[in-house]
Amino acid sequence: MQQKSSQSRGVLYDKTVPLNKSEKHLINSAHLLLIASRACSSQNKARFFLGGWCVWVCVCVWKMRLFVGLYQLSSLLYLVALAGCEEDYTEDEEMILSLIRQVDSRPVLESGSSAQFLRCTKDAWRIPGQYIVVVRNGTRDNQVERTARRLRVNAARRGYLISILRTYSGAFHGFLVQMSSDVLHMAVKLPHVEYIEEDSSIFAQGSPWNLERIVQTKTGKYKPPNDGSEVGVYIMDTTIQANHRELAQRVMVTDFNSVPEEDGVRVHRQASQCDSHGTHTAGVVSGRDSGVAPGASVNSVRVLNCQGFKKTSTLSVFAGLEYIRASLQVQPISPVIVLLPFAGGFSRTLNAACREMVRSGAVLIAAAGNYQDDACLYSPASEPEVITVGASNAADQPLTVGTMGTNVGRCVDLFAPGDDIVSASGDCPTCFTAKSGTSQAAAHVAGIAAVLLKENPTARSVEVLHLLRHHAAQQVMNPEALPLEHRLTTPNMVAVVFKSPSARAGEALLCRSVWSKRSGVMSFDTAAAHCLHGEEMFSCSSYSPDGVWAGERIEVRERKECVAHNGVGGQGVYAVARCCMDDRVQCQSFASAHMGTEAKCPSPQHQLTGCCSYFGSGGVADATRPLHGNSKACPARAGATSHASCCQITSSLECRGNEYQPCSLPLSQVEVSCEDSWTLTGCSGASQGSAPHGAYARGNTCIVRPSRGERGVAAVAICCRYPPPQQSSSEPGQEPGRQ
């Protein structure tokens, strides 16, 4: 007979081999030999082996039906051998001696009825192998100890070792025991036992700060509109521990594996080191308790290796994207999100692959990078079609961890929690850990996007982007925490889960500002900004930090672009395109026929959504006030060409102008906002003296920076909306009045 190798269960024989009663007695005798041997000193081994001799005699004569008597004799000789041992016995050895003394003197009594066995209703929270044994009311402490001792004896007689961890005599009487589940049938029949309960996990019920942050409710409890089920999320990361309690039954580990070799000497790594990043990221997306969209399914595509900061290559990521594309062609999943929780150097090839993936119908979400740098210098963060996410901390400030910190700049679309995020750990199926970075921030946005796509399954990537930005917490970050050169271009918004994602913001017109990089400093150097596929450019403006620029205009090259021109002696200029998501309108730019004359919209079926002007001679640009009402025109200064952005109406879009000119002392900037339900589509400045530094939109506010000490500068906003249903019967193009 073979001894089973599993020590955790303490089994002394192979339970798969059927044993008769005599064979079980023999095995128990061998067990007693081992215990007694461990208890005796070396000088008393001779007496100990007397008992062993008797056991082997039993083997020889057991077919002569003399076994039982010899077994009893061997037990007595054990007592003789052990009595001569001078060393103290351990608690387990004392228990075995008690067993030897009792084995033939009296049978082990068990209660006639079984006690109740209880376990947690949540399977993932159970802790098998650890049990609380509760005895009946009125049971004395010595009876509790006797019950625990009896359980140990019964288990040992059947080849199991158990451990009594603690006894209780306060709120209830009983004890905590570690034992195999195979011993339960003995435990429930012990005298005095009322019930046995399997141990289980208990969790603090306060939501982690990151989940509290992305819900805008008074209760602070995380409760999204839906769980993101029926949305597939491909995570390109390390491997994922699919059996983790946070992710059980919702992770499919694909057969793709394109991982570069690790640098330096290769060493053996634990599995947890290879799946720690991917498991944590997946937990943030769809963890049962730590996830944003706990119902979303996860598909693991491994592209990162196990090295330190988890590394891959451009070609590996490209191959991973191709694998996902091919998989979706064979087995389509819609809607689908691809999470890219990594950043590398700028790659035109990788950006092109991401762009094509978006245009095939996927929503791609990427980490901005953790280098405290311009996100536009990294891929895939620099690809405009990808939703790029920066990381914020609990104070809604840009994440900084030691020498590392979130990337910023115009290529970042919004921020999300990324500091000290608690999620699933790869160390074990029930372990959790905290990590920080833009990978965690991007995972939050992937979860929010899954919640959105659950109720809007046909939404395109550009619509997801606009809804994320529209519902984000606006202007919560301190601009002083951002690098000076990126304060204007970095979006000041933190992602949140919206209450009603299916409402599409109440049919609001959704717009955003797209900044170009800063132009060169040579005269007539240009900067260009453009909208995404699926967006319409409603207006074009520009901003010069030193106030020397020659204006801006909308040009159609390979695509429609907002082009800003640097002035003579200028230090560079930014172009700012106002891009709106609306399939119901088509916009065009109409230039004035001659310099110094106004540019007009061609028909009453057009709405004026923005004005801009350009000085071809390189002179300093200066805008004038747009004209609404029947004219719908953009006046021009002498020597300048005016351009009117006019959108042809296919529905009841209405637009009007808002203007603010302070009467007090000069201000560092002049602002005017659109009212609720109105959306800013155009922003310009007007001055009676020196030209301002330009105008740009931030959220729903038009901002104009006057020249130093300049008075009489006005900010002019063009605000548009689709009227409420009760007003939708008004004629298209009807002017509601100017404010």
TrEMBL record:
<keyword id="KW-0256">Endoplasmic reticulum</keyword>
<feature type="domain" description="Inhibitor I9">
    <location>
        <begin position="130"/>
        <end position="201"/>
    </location>
</feature>
<keyword id="KW-0333">Golgi apparatus</keyword>
<dbReference type="InterPro" id="IPR010259">
    <property type="entry name" value="S8pro/Inhibitor_I9"/>
</dbReference>
<keyword id="KW-0753">Steroid metabolism</keyword>
<feature type="active site" description="Charge relay system">
    <location>
        <position position="277"/>
    </location>
</feature>
<keyword id="KW-0106">Calcium</keyword>
<keyword id="KW-0472">Membrane</keyword>
<keyword id="KW-0443">Lipid metabolism</keyword>
<feature type="transmembrane region" description="Helical">
    <location>
        <begin position="48"/>
        <end position="71"/>
    </location>
</feature>
<keyword id="KW-0967">Endosome</keyword>
<dbReference type="GO" id="GO:0022008">
    <property type="term" value="P:neurogenesis"/>
</dbReference>
<dbReference type="Pfam" id="PF18459">
    <property type="entry name" value="PCSK9_C1"/>
</dbReference>
<protein>
    <recommendedName>
        <fullName>Proprotein convertase subtilisin/kexin type 9</fullName>
    </recommendedName>
</protein>
<keyword id="KW-0645">Protease</keyword>
<comment type="subunit">
    <text>Monomer. Can self-associate to form dimers and higher multimers which may have increased LDLR degrading activity. The precursor protein but not the mature protein may form multimers. Interacts with APOB, VLDLR, LRP8/APOER2 and BACE1. The full-length immature form (pro-PCSK9) interacts with SCNN1A, SCNN1B and SCNN1G. The pro-PCSK9 form (via C-terminal domain) interacts with LDLR. Interacts (via the C-terminal domain) with ANXA2 (via repeat Annexin 1); the interaction inhibits the degradation of LDLR.</text>
</comment>
<dbReference type="Pfam" id="PF05922">
    <property type="entry name" value="Inhibitor_I9"/>
</dbReference>
<dbReference type="Pfam" id="PF18463">
    <property type="entry name" value="PCSK9_C3"/>
</dbReference>
<keyword id="KW-0378">Hydrolase</keyword>
<dbReference type="GO" id="GO:0006508">
    <property type="term" value="P:proteolysis"/>
</dbReference>
<feature type="active site" description="Charge relay system">
    <location>
        <position position="439"/>
    </location>
</feature>
<dbReference type="InterPro" id="IPR037045">
    <property type="entry name" value="S8pro/Inhibitor_I9_sf"/>
</dbReference>
<dbReference type="InterPro" id="IPR050131">
    <property type="entry name" value="Peptidase_S8_subtilisin-like"/>
</dbReference>
<feature type="domain" description="Proprotein convertase subtilisin/kexin type 9 C-terminal">
    <location>
        <begin position="505"/>
        <end position="583"/>
    </location>
</feature>
<dbReference type="InterPro" id="IPR000209">
    <property type="entry name" value="Peptidase_S8/S53_dom"/>
</dbReference>
<feature type="domain" description="Peptidase S8/S53">
    <location>
        <begin position="228"/>
        <end position="473"/>
    </location>
</feature>
<dbReference type="InterPro" id="IPR036852">
    <property type="entry name" value="Peptidase_S8/S53_dom_sf"/>
</dbReference>
<dbReference type="Pfam" id="PF00082">
    <property type="entry name" value="Peptidase_S8"/>
</dbReference>
<dbReference type="GO" id="GO:0004252">
    <property type="term" value="F:serine-type endopeptidase activity"/>
</dbReference>
<dbReference type="GO" id="GO:0007417">
    <property type="term" value="P:central nervous system development"/>
</dbReference>
<comment type="similarity">
    <text>Belongs to the peptidase S8 family.</text>
</comment>
<dbReference type="GO" id="GO:0009986">
    <property type="term" value="C:cell surface"/>
</dbReference>
<dbReference type="GO" id="GO:0008203">
    <property type="term" value="P:cholesterol metabolic process"/>
</dbReference>
<dbReference type="GO" id="GO:0006915">
    <property type="term" value="P:apoptotic process"/>
</dbReference>
<keyword id="KW-0053">Apoptosis</keyword>
<dbReference type="GO" id="GO:0005764">
    <property type="term" value="C:lysosome"/>
</dbReference>
<keyword id="KW-1015">Disulfide bond</keyword>
<keyword id="KW-0765">Sulfation</keyword>
<keyword id="KW-0812">Transmembrane</keyword>
<keyword id="KW-0964">Secreted</keyword>
<dbReference type="GO" id="GO:0005783">
    <property type="term" value="C:endoplasmic reticulum"/>
</dbReference>
<dbReference type="GO" id="GO:0005768">
    <property type="term" value="C:endosome"/>
</dbReference>
